[in-house]
Design brief:
The chain is about 70% helix and about 0% strand. By secondary structure, it is an all-alpha fold. It has a domain at about 1-145. Helix 3 packs antiparallel against helix 4. Keywords: Membrane, Transmembrane, Transmembrane helix.
Length: about 210
């Protein structure tokens, strides 16, 4: 984002116009920075595992990678690096810089080489961000689909209980009888007191 901003400033200050080409990619980068900052703060605030709705993640990732595609296309297609040209020397090895010879060469016009290199670096980073957010977008689509299917199953189970018992699931759970209390058997009581009578007789015979 900083590289694109510097490129826009240098381009507008020295050549004027056409600064939107490098200004357009700033928009998805700003959206990505704002959303990821919010997501980090949200995760740190809710440490008990409260998840963010996958639909919000899906929407944010869409607003990042979708405009990033045309931003890269325009920034690369109209970049300053397309104006680069090799140096042409005279037969005596002299270098002339004019409108006919070497006007767009690096010795005569070093600024466009600086701008072009900055555009290449910025677009590489923007492409990495695009790939990352597109992957997160696909994962968010899968999570959203699973979340919707789970809500449908829960809604269907709730409707089945309401149709079968003519009451809500909460009312049905409250009217259920409590589980039976645990009552130990007589044999288990003897075992707890010190073993079965047979084992006690065997101990008497053994130590008599």
């Amino acid at each position: 984002m900083i590289i694109f901003a510097v490129t826009v400033h240098q381009s507008k200050e020295n050549y004027g116009g056409n600064d939107w080409v490098d200004g357009f990619p700033i928009a998805p980068l700003v959206i990505s920075w704002i959303f990821n900052s919010f997501l980090i703060l949200f995760t740190l605030y809710y440490r008990q595992g409260r998840p963010i709705h996958p639909g919000w993640v899906l929407t944010a990732d869409l607003f990042v990678w979708a405009p990033a595609v045309p931003a890269i296309v325009f920034s690369v297609g109209l970049g300053w690096f397309w104006w680069w040209q090799p140096v042409e020397l005279e037969f005596r090895g002299e270098l002339f810089c004019n409108n006919t010879y070497n006007f767009w060469s690096e010795p005569c016009n070093p600024l466009i080489y600086k701008l072009g290199k900055m555009e290449i670096a910025a677009n590489v980073f923007l492409a990495l961000i695009l790939i990352m957010h597109f992957y997160l977008f696909v994962m968010a689509c899968i999570k959203t689909h699973k979340w919707r299917m789970q809500k449908k199953r829960e809604g269907a189970a709730r409707r089945n209980i309401e149709l079968q018992y003519h009451r809500s699931p909460e009312e049905h759970a409250r009217n259920q009888p409590p589980p039976p209390a645990y009552t130990p058997s007589a044999g288990s009581e003897r075992d707890l007191e010190g073993g079965s009578p047979i084992s006690q007789d065997e101990n008497v015979v053994k130590y008599a």
